[in-house]
Amino acid sequence: MQRLVVLGAGESGVGAALLAKQQGWDVFVSDSGIIKEGFQKELDQANIKWEQGVHTLDLIFNADEVVKSPGIPDAVPLIQQLHSRSIPVISEIEFAGRYTQSKTICITGSNGKTTTTMLIHYLLKHSGVNVEMAGNVGTSLARQIADGKTPEWFVIELSSFQLDGMYQFKADIAVLLNITPDHLDRYEYKMQKYINSKFRIVQNQTEEDVFVYCQDDDLIAGELPKRIFKSELLPFTQNDILKQGAYSTLDELIINYNDETMSIFSQDLSLQGRHNLYNSMAAGIVAKVLKIRKKLIRESLSSFKGVAHRLEKVAAVRGIEFINDSKATNVNATWYALECMTKPVIWIAGGVDKGNEYDELMPLVEKKVKSIICLGVDNEKLLKAFGGKVKSIREVQSMDDAVAIAYNQGKKNEVVLLSPACASFDLFDNYIQRGEQFKESVRNL
User: Fold this and answer.
1) Where does ATP bind (predicted)?
2) Residues near 288 by beta carbon (within 8 Å), at least 6 away in sequence
């Protein structure tokens, strides 16, 4: 019997463990932190051995293969030791992909991947396609396969960390939305390493497959000539007219594919803003490739409800609008958020800096932001970047304080925008908890 060790007992790790047990592997789960009670019960019920708060090396180094949580960096000594022993270390997606015949639509990018994944899933479901959503959003792929799900298509959101552990896995349709500096702390602060990670989405693709990408992204455009692609390339753009792919005019989104054209008025799209136009283009191309009727594509693109914690309107209090963009964990995501704003902004930012450079935000901040509230343990970089650029810049250590100060500074027809540009781990468990606390604080005003 082959032995699989799973490092990290979150949703993806437990999913991988359950699937492996079902497939006849000898499974052991090890988490250096504390495993959530619900996951502990699941492992016990499946008769899977586990440990928490420690990694017992003797029980790990006898593995035939290791599935590691996306949250564990390759640079940690344990992973390096596994590599030195030639024990394969893979991602849950790589493992799960072996046990399904379903086709895959895989979405990655520095920003917009959750929205686009959910939009594609919604579009296909609305059109009667047998489809499930997995990966970095919702239920893990491994768990769904273990639960016996056999959809025609899995729509899978993939982070660069998940892509790093994928070797044989193949996307039938790969979508690359954009590449901007993010998680550089995991890539030795070398941008090319991060770019290479994102382009793993097209590895193993054949002539039968499709690669959908943003032509306007300089890093993607610069990388294309360096690589050989077997798949069909379908770009989308806001700066050009394309015979194959998607583009926009002043008031329409147009998709051309295999001598068929469809269009939808931009004002009819449920997701507004320049960045969301890209997301709608990507989803529209995927739908056309799958031969979904124009009427259904239009209906879906105009009726989809957005993603929680992504430019989510929370409430208006005394004429001040509160917007939750907690999912903006990097500079580029915050750039998009600020770019969408049409009223003066009180900006709540900060958290764990991931090697951010704030220069690209400066023109938008000078034009649109009236004051900044830094919500984080270490705000030095934000203070240095924006001190003197806005009327007021304050530091706080709690969400209640951040919201209260923003409310006191705000006037009618102004916006309080939580768009941190940073990870959340200094004061919160994750961006979801940060966003929920923001909403709670606003409701308590």
Assistant:
1) 109-115
2) 255, 257, 260, 262, 297
- DSSP letter string, 402-421: HHHHHHHH--TTEEEEE--S
- Euclidean distance between the first and final Cα of the chain, in Å? 59
Note the pLDDT of residue 193: 86
- Rounded to an integer, the average pLDDT of 332-352 is 91
CA 182 – CA 313 distance, rounded (Å): 25
Average pLDDT over residues 328-348: 91
Looking at domain 94-303, its CATH architecture is 3-Layer(aba) Sandwich (3.40)
Going by the annotation, the residues of the binding site for ATP are 109-115
Q: Looking at per-residue confidence, does 404 or 71 come out higher?
A: 404
Q: Which CATH number fits domain 3-90: 3.40.950.10, 3.30.390.50, 3.20.20.70, 3.40.50.720?
A: 3.40.50.720
Q: Which residues are annotated binding-site positions?
A: 109-115
More confident residue, 181 or 383: 383
The DSSP-derived string for 203-225 is TT--TT-EEEEETT-HHHHHHGG
SS3 85: coil
Residue 178 near residue 109 (C-beta atoms within 8 A): yes
Q: Which helix (H) or strand (E) holds 441?
A: helix 431-443
